[in-house]
Amino acid sequence: MRIALSTNWNNVRLDDGAAIADEAVALGFDALELGFRTMPEQIPGFKSRLGRMPVESVHAYCPVPIGAPSGHPELHQLAHRDENERALARLLLKQTIACAAELGAKVVVTHAGYAGLDGLFRNYGSDVLRRVLKWPDGKPDASRPHYAKLVAKARERRRKRGRALLEVFRRELDGVIPDLEKAGVTLALENLPSLEGFPDGEEAEALMKDLAGAPVRLWFDTGHARVRECHLWDDPATDVATRFAPHICGMHLNDVTDFHDDHRQPGWGKVDFAVLKSLARRDILRVFEPHEPVTFDELKESLALIRRMWK
Questions:
Q1: Residue 125, SS3?
Q2: Segment 216-251, tens digit of pLDDT
Q3: Is the pLDDT reported for residue 83 higher than 80?
Q4: What mean pLDDT, rounded, does the chain reach?
Q5: Where are the beta strands (DSSP E) in the chain?
């Protein structure tokens, strides 16, 4: 089973793309995903190691656009109500597709955008819901009746806002699909760890039905799915994985405690990776996406754990 490493883990600590790839080899990974923190000057180093460490996916936007203060997957959003914002997102996405094609990667992972939940009299955004979630002692508890009632209202507003955004996003994809087809690259829409994250399940189903045969698929992030489940923003993560398995072309493996997007190594938190085995064994990309606090030894041990669990 091939497993890749996201360069977001070490491409701030290491300047040279070749050194980043060599570290992934030492850990026992089979491939790389170039993360959104990848700098243009690191690309030649990655190219020099393609024979030993291929690049299977690229996370938009990559490399970091000239003039951007830092790398970020949401510098601009293709699913957005503002036309200028969408135009900038489309430009950066096309540059990422070109980068993927140049390195032989077959998938570009993207954060499409958000269906905002603000309002004139009431804001149902995720930050508001998180504050209501906590008891006075600061501990989160999704079983609180007041919280559940508020989430129900927020999800209803989310459905309405999502439908409107879906039409805009679908039109934007028409301008990107020709570039994907020419490059031989698939665009993968990642599930995001907030109620506003677009697309949600209903929107993803509509897109996959409408775009059957087009190079647009879904990307499953294990930590994001767990965060959504714990906040009652979505069905259980394992149910989501099963429901969308035919449309998923890859997954990010990261672990969380429950309510926070921790991005730690698998085995550290509460994501049930054993139950996700059926998804992982499909013909998809599997990418570890830890953040910097994870050490070399922790990551190596986690990789061995997942290989044993999913062999």
A1: coil
A2: 999 999 999 999 999 999 999 999 999 999 999 999
A3: yes
A4: 95
A5: 4-6, 31-34, 55-59, 107-110, 113-114, 186-190, 197-198, 216-221, 248-253, 285-288
Angle among Cα 300, 303, 308 to the nearest 5 degrees reads 130
Q: How many other C-beta atoms are found inside a 10 Å radius of the C-beta of residue 152?
A: 10
d(CA 52, CA 87): 37
What's the predicted TM-score (pTM) here? 0.96
Query: Which of 118, 114, 115 is CA-nearest to residue 129?
Result: 118
* CA separation for the pair 177, 169 (Å, rounded): 12
- At the top level of CATH, the class of 4-116+164-310 is alpha beta
How distant, in Å, are the alpha carbons of 136, 154, 217, 261 from that of 131? Answer: 10, 14, 33, 16
| pLDDT tens-digit series, residues 89-136 | 999 999 999 999 999 999 999 999 999 998 766 788 999 998 888 877
Reported as a single tens digit per residue, the pLDDT across 152-186 is: 999 999 999 999 999 999 999 999 999 999 999 99
Q: Encoding tokens for residue 120? A: 């004139």
How many angstroms separate the CA atoms of 58 and 187, rounded? 10
Q: How far is CA 205 from CA 143, 180, 243, 267, in A?
A: 28, 21, 10, 30
Confidence check: pLDDT of 285 > 70: yes
Task: Select from 264, 186, 188, 252 the least CA-distant residue to 225.
Answer: 252
SS3 57: strand
| Single-letter amino acid code for the residue at 258 | D
Estimate to the nearest angstrom the gap between the alpha carbon of 269 and the chain centroid: 18
Sketch the domain layout of the chain as residue ranges: 4-116+164-310
CA-to-CA separations, 253 to 186, 267, 280, in angstroms, rounded: 19, 10, 10
Return the pLDDT at 121.
Answer: 67
